[in-house]
Amino acid sequence: MRLALYVTCLVDLMRPSVGFAALRLLEATGAEVFVPEGQTCCGQPAWSAGNRRLAVDLAKKAIGELERYDAVVIPSGSCTDQIRNVYPQLFAGEPEWEARARNLANRTFELTSYLADVAKGGFDTPDFTGSVTYHDSCKGLRGLGIKRQPRELLLKVRGLSLKEMPDCEECCGFGGAFSVKFGEVSTQIVDRKCDSIVAAGADAVVGCDLGCLINIEGRLRRRGDETTRVLHIAEVLAGGSEC
C-alpha cells in the first residue's frame, strides 16, 4: 500500500509535530508512506471565500500530485471534506476532471477514519496519564460522518480516561475566515466551547482538526487557563513528549 500523507497548511506551518505523529502511525500499519514535496493548499479557504477560480486551480494541482498513490490520508476533517465532497462538485460537467476528482475522492481518508476503518489499528497503543475530552469538528462530523472512530482509538490508549464534554458537537467558532470576519460572534461561540471543556473536567482537549484546536487553545489561554492541554489526536495516539 502506497500512501500519500497530505500534511495540510496549518500542520506544516503551525504544528509540524502533528504531521510527524501521523507519519509514525501510518508507517506502523505497514504502509509505505510518502509526503509529496510539492503539496500546497487544498483550496478550502478559497472555496469558502467564493474564489472558485483559485479553488479549481489548487484542486487540479492537488489531484495531479496525489492521484498516483493507492490512498491519501489527511490529519484534518476540513481538508479531507474538501477533497472528498467538494472536488467532484468543482468539476461537474467536465468529464475528464470530474472522473479524476471522484477517483481521488474515493481514495482519500481522514486520519482516524483510515486508522479505525481501513487499517483497523495496526499500531502499538501508547501510554497516557490523565483524562481527555473530545471536540467533534464540524467538517469531520457533518461532512464525513466521523464520530465513532476517534473515540474508539482513544479508548485503546493505556491509562487514558475519556470524559465527554457537554455539547461536544457544537462548533468551536473557528470556521477559517469566519473567525476573522466575524470576530465577536466567533468569540462567543468559542467561549461556549471553552465552558464545555471546563465542565468536562479533563486534563486535555483532543480533536482531529488543528484549526479548531488553535482557536480553542488561544481562547483558553486568554481566559487564563494555562493548564488544559490542547492536543491533536495524532499526537495522543503516537505517544511522545506531547503526552
Description:
It is a single chain. The longest helix is centred in the last third of the chain and has 18 residues. α12 links the parallel β7 and β8. The protein contains 13 helices and eight strands. 46% of the residues are buried. The two termini are 29 Å apart. The protein has 243 residues and is α/β, with parallel strands linked by helices. It has two domains: 116 residues, no CATH class; 114 residues, Rossmann fold (3-Layer(aba) Sandwich), CATH 3.40.50. It has a four-stranded parallel β-sheet with strand order 2-1-3-4, sandwiched between helices.
Summarize this structure as a short list of keywords or feature phrases.
243 residues; four-stranded parallel sheet; Rossmann fold; 2 domains; 13 helices; 52% helix
SSE topology sketch:
Elements: E1 2-5, H1 9-14, H2 16-28, E2 32-34, H3 44-48, H4 52-66, E3 71-74, H5 77-90, H6 95-105, E4 108-110, H7 111-118, E5 127-134, H8 138-144, H9 148-154, E6 158-162, H10 178-181, H11 183-200, E7 204-207, H12 210-222, E8 229-232, H13 233-238
Helix pairs in contact: 4-6, 5-6, 5-8, 7-9, 11-12
